[in-house]
Amino acid sequence: MRDRLVSAFRSAYARDPEVIARAPGRIEFIGNHTDYNGGPVLGAAIDRGVWVGLARRDDGVRRFVTEAHPRPTMLAAASAERMTGADAWINYPLGVLIALREAGAGTPAGFELAVVSDVPTGAGLSSSAAIELASGLAFLEAAGQVLDRETLVSVCRRAENQFVGVPCGILDQGVSGFGRRGHLVHIDCRALRFGTVELPAGFDFWIFNTHTKHALIDGLYAERHRECMEAARVIGVPLLVEATPAMLAAAETRLSRPAYKRARHVIDEIARVEQAVAALRAADGPAVGKLLFASHRSSRTWFENSSRELDFLVDALESERGILGARLTGGGFGGAAMALASAEFSAESVQRVSDAYLGTFGSRPDVMRARTDDGASLVKGSS
Ligand code: GLA
After folding, report:
1. Domains and CATH numbers, the chain
2. pLDDT, tens digit, for every residue of 348-368?
3. Do 31 and 268 contact (CB within 8 A), yes or no?
């Protein structure tokens, strides 16, 4: 990937990058839509990532290029306009640049930037958070600045909330920033505390990308966000993390049906994340797996963010040997399902699931094996 990045950089700008940074994609392990409700979540940085190369310019001009769109887009010194169409991806690095400045960090005035990635986009693996983290590190390094990791992930989230306009929680940026090989990242999203929990040896992940995406996905995410906040208000708590099942039951008749269902999912899911942490610490793979299936059922029934394709995959995986658990991963409404598997889950098992999917939906899912990896970092020896 480093060579790919340097060669993309050279062909766009006819020089080498001064700084290189990389940040991983992530899976959401368990904790579906718990983050912006102040709850805990478990995720894993994966061995697919986004690489950003950068070199400074003195004239304030900023140029951006990706492998997919190899002709650089140029932004004049003062421009902070939101980009659209094929240039929309620029909003991630640009949003981070603006958010870093707002946070008082120094950033390079002008620069040339190139991005290469092997995180599939639109699969719910957070290629966007990975671009944010990698560009954030590159901007800071080029300006000779250091920022603690907690602040950096919060700045990247702010870029996504305010500049890109998605009301996401801290999961994606937190996992890409705090990933650790062999571990899951455990985030307390209210206290903004980031820790890790070991993934017992012998397990890894399989990701099944359905290539489907609900047409109204952004609006649906925002709608779920609003319904959760409405439920918290009616129950009388600032965020659903403070609500108990008894408080929810007492408020049921005062809640709209959607708000009740969303809160039911979030409150139960928060409990499942803590149970999963305990089961992981006890290296109890089967118990962890049951929680993953339960999480998926709850998304399907209460949060209503699954899809026929995702349900099909999770059901098909449930009957395969070597699968401990499976669920949708990320925001939902399409995207990918992930499975926690032992080595018993073989290439033939993948084929069987893929064939069955083809028989029902007329196309195959993209299947990818993923291992845990370290979080965002600068890549030394860039120039
Ligand atoms: C998306 C968001 C995250 C989180 C998940 C659902 O990935 O970016 O912040 O809310 O959905 O858990």
Report:
1. 2-198+373-380 (3.30.230.10), 204-370 (3.30.70.890)
2. 999 999 999 999 999 999 999
3. no
